[in-house]
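To whoever is on call:

I kicked off a structure prediction for a single chain this morning and the downstream step that reads the tokens threw a length-mismatch warning. I double-checked the sequence; it's 219 residues and nothing unusual in it as far as I can see. Pasting both halves so you can look.
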Amino acid sequence: MIRWLVALAFVPVVLFSPPASAEVRVVRRPDGSIYVYNVRTRSLASSVKATPRRSAQPIEAIEALVERHAKQVALEPELVKAVIQVESAFDPHAMSHKGAMGLMQLMPATAAAYSVSNPYDPEQNIGAGTKYLKRLIVSLGSLELGLAAYNAGPAAVQRFGGVPPYPETRDYVEKVMRLYRGDTLYSLASSNLLRPGRKTYLRRDASGRLIMTTSPPSG
């Protein structure tokens, strides 16, 4: 009986202790609101050093970096600020569930491509993020397409020939554009850049297997 009591005493510790890989973060957003969230740490590409700085980074210091790096690549600072707000809410330590890191949410491959050793360092993150965003806008020939590629990847934009029909990507482009233009009514709804999703059909083949296709049934 005593052995059972001793064993049960340790159950709450096992059940309710947080995962070793989880972190609780508190972010003060530009509007003064406080956002508390839980993230899991992830392993990064070997060429990227996962060492997020824990000291507070004043918004003014981040904005100064934005001004400098945006001008170096001929982007408007307000556009870069809008991207940062949507990507990370100005949190240098932000990490997405997909592994995107820092202020401009660099993926490990992008960080490595721009020789970023610490993606949580605002200087390196903004420097690489602005260069990457500028390259996407120039290569795709449109601000909206560049933003869509920043979110969904350039391959998706090229494959669809416009803004991919992903709700997340459309929402992302609209949020950034609304902040950048100061226009809360901005929408891609009537834009010729937005590609509608193709209707899919389910049918069975001769062996009885279910097949999903974009071709409508004959007859």
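Update from on-call: the warning came from a stale cache, not from the record. Cleared it. Sanity check on the structure: Confidence is low (pLDDT under 50) at residues 1-27, 34-54.
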